[in-house]
Amino acid sequence: MLLFFISSVFFSLMYYVQSLKTGLTPKKWALAGLLFGPTIYPLFRSRQRIKLLRARGLSNTLFWA
User: Fold this and answer.
1) Whole-angstrom Cα distance, residue 16 to residue 35?
2) Of 16, 27, 52, 59, which one has the fewest beta carbons inside 10 Å?
3) Could you tell me which residues come within 8 angstroms of residue 12 by beta carbon, excluding any fewer than 6 positions away?
4) Contacts of 18 (CB under 8 A, 6+ apart)
């Protein structure tokens, strides 16, 4: 039980910082990270990708360096 609480707090902070970097709503993702821990990571990554696709469009190319 203690391990779940510690990991939830850690993931809450991680989701908060990552959502600040990518332009998502940080409070919402921090709360979701606190409640669900690492299980929402696939949803978080898909939201980041959707936000990126909306920002740059579907016809543009993005090169990660």
Assistant:
1) 13
2) 59
3) 30, 31, 33, 34
4) 24, 29, 44, 48
How many Cα atoms occupy the beta-carbon half-sphere of 10 within 13 Å? 8
Radius of gyration of the chain (CA): 14
Number of H helices, E strands in the chain: 3, 0
Segment 31-43, tens digit of pLDDT: 999 999 889 999 9
Q: Which residue has the tokens 């606190």?
A: 34
- pTM for the model stands at 0.77
| Residue 57, token pair as written in the block | 């469009």
